[in-house]
Each structure stands twice: as structure tokens, then as C-alpha cells.
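*** Residues and shapes ***
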Amino acid sequence: MELVNAPTPQQDEEWLVGQFEIWWVRYPFKQKKKTAQEEWIKIFTRSPGIPREGWSEYSNMLTKALEDQLYYRKKMDQIYPNPQDKKNANVFVPRLPMPSSWLHQGRWMDDVPNIEDRTISSGHVSRCADCDNESFITVGDTPLCAWHWTKRYDRKGLVRLAESLKDMGLGPKKGENTATWGARCRSHLTKLKLAKDLHLA
């Protein structure tokens, strides 16, 4: 929603409240909505405030910052489903504050770490639920290897991987099943890495 030209103070507040509602519906728990709404309006209007022409962009930034933080929390909970897993991997996920506190404390400025594929360090090796390979992630109670996690949850990534392999001349051969194709690709890439390590490629 764009701001109209020369709005009245009432129209400004109505616009800000409308943008607050977009942010509010994304917050995981709904407590002290009135206080949170007041904090939202203060961000834009208290001195020195946000220049009115930048309200739309700033509002979108606040909502995007919350979405990024929630996505990170969700992914860390999938990769490390219990506190001990997080502790073993030295992963810290801060407690989400009250909505009004998130706004008052400027928590949209908190850094969100890059999400990387992580392996849980533990005293035993768990196996993928779909094959006998070592798992690298646990979703709920289901351990999965990298391949089967991608197959279940990242179909776009799977397509990109297949396209990259084809570009390298490693597309599937006629009559070759997925397992054989995968083994051939892994063997080739392992040899390629070894050659690079030995400065032969």
C-alpha cells in the first residue's frame, strides 16, 4: 500500500496501523498488541523519526527482518531439535522477546547468522531413515542424509544439482538408474577433488 499525497495525520496513523498489522500477523505470539502498535508508530514518528517518503521501505524492512529471524530459528530447530544438539554444535538461538520489546529494543537490527549445512556432533553415528548412509540432519525424530533431506525438502535444489551435473558432462546415461548415476557422479567428483588437492587439475 502506497502513501497518498499530502495525507492528514489521521490518514498517516491509519497507514501505519495497516503496516503494523502486516508485521503483527507474522509474530509467533500475540501479546500486548496495543503496546506493540504504539511502539511501531513511535519508530516512524518520534524525533528524529523516519522521513515520510521512506515509510513504505522501512516498514517492509521491519517485516523482512522479522521473517529472516523466524526462518533462522525454524531451520536451527530442524537441524538441532533439542538443546543439547545446539550446545554440542555451539549454536545459540536467543529467546524471542515480547512483540513490543522487539520493536522498542530495535531487534530488527540483530544479525542473522548464515545458515549452513551442519553435522551434529555426537558420540554415535546415526543412520538415515531412508538409506544406510550417515545422517547429517534430524527433522523431528527422523534422521536423514544430505541426499534424502534434499529429496524430501529441497526439490528446487535437487533440480539445480542435476542441471549443474549435466553442465559438467555428468548427466544420466541411457538405462542408468538413479543409484548408479549418483555413484558415478560421486566417484568423478571425488577424483576431481583429489586432483585439485594434488595440483593436477
Remarks:
- Strands lie at 137-139, 142-144.
